[in-house]
Structure formats: structure tokens, C-alpha cells
Amino acid sequence: SAVISQKPSRDICQRGTSLTIQCQVDSQVTMMFWYRQQPGQSLTLIATANQGSEATYESGFVIDKFPISRPNLTFSTLTVSNMSPEDSSIYLCSALDPGTVNTEAFFGQGTRLTVV
Amino acid sequence: GNSVTQMEGPVTLSEEAFLTINCTYTATGYPSLFWYVQYPGEGLQLLLKATKADDKGSNKGFEATYRKETTSFHLEKGSVQVSDSAVYFCALSGFSGGYNKLIFGAGTRLAVHP
Fold it and tell me: Which of A25, A33, A107 to substitute to test the interface with B, most B CBs within 10 Å?
């Protein structure tokens, strides 16, 4: 299956600042997603990153707080804006490509974000 | 709505013990079911999957059978090892209105002692 690289792997940020997380897939994929995993909890889908158009956000998540880009079929970024301690989480990029060998979602290693 | 419910952890076992982690789901349409595993400090890895009723997914000694009548997908392993210590997530996709999205259960932490 394809490999996802996320950068940075971890960061400690000051409240009120923004952090952009990069997700690079080693092959072209149809669909990319961003998930949040709050401490000790499960994964929650933030949005679907759509290539060449605006991301599709899940209930409770908005573009102003989590702007997403997807300029091509192998790359996406998630920005966590105006951070507060409540944004401290692991953020995971996921991808899948229905109809190919990558029919199941696979995940990056995650970005562990701590906001102080 | 669509949801996944897993047994709460942590589950603590001795090496070579039998493992069951219960998972039940609620979904519209005809979902696929998955077990993902997260080892300490790592991302998620797909452990096994089943795409239709009565399918059995298996991998690395783990098994789970898609039971539509009981809406369950329990994870089992006959003899656990210390290296199986991780967090296990049950998930579903392919539900109506969200075909490629994954909905995860809360996760069950497994600790295996020598």
C-alpha cells in the first residue's frame, strides 16, 4: 500500500498562533482526509480534502479554524488556526484510492500538537 | 445515526491468554467493518477487514466475523503476545451518505504481560 509522510511529527505551540501540517503520499490517491485524536480518545473526522476545490467539513469543524489545501493528488495541508490548549491533539492524515490496491484507508504517523 | 461501540479498556492479559474485544455497530446501508491497531507512538495500521455479512477477516492470528444479525464485529485472538500490546479501534465505512468516511469506536487499550 502507499506510504504517507506527515510533517512535523510533533510540535509545541503558543496559544494564538497557527500551525500548518503537511501530508505527502508517495502515489496519487483519489481521496484524502484529516482526523483529530484528542488525548485518550478516538479519531474524529475533521474534513475531506478535495483536490482543486474547497474541503468538505464535518459537523463541528469550520474552514476558518481548520483551513485545508489540496493542490494535487499526492499532497494536502491542514492548518490549525488561532490555537488554544483545547486544540492539543494528534492530527492524522489518511488516504484511500477506491478501485486500486489502496482500497482501504491508510494513515500517516500523525502530528502530535501541544498548545501552551 | 452511524456509530461504533467498543468495550471499554484497558484489557490486561497474560501472555498466551485468549483475547476478545467486543464491537457493535449501527449503520445505514451496507457498511464495511475494520479493525485498526495503534502501537505506542505510531499511527494507525489496518489489522483486518470484512466487507459483507458472514465474512471473516483475519491477520496475524487475529480474527473477526461480520455478524449482521447481531450487528457485531468482535476481535479475537487465541494466544496473545506481549508485542500485541496496543490500542485497537473498530471502525466502519460504506454507510449511506458517507461512503469512504471512517467512523471509529472509542478504542480499547490492550496490555499483555509476560
Answer: A107
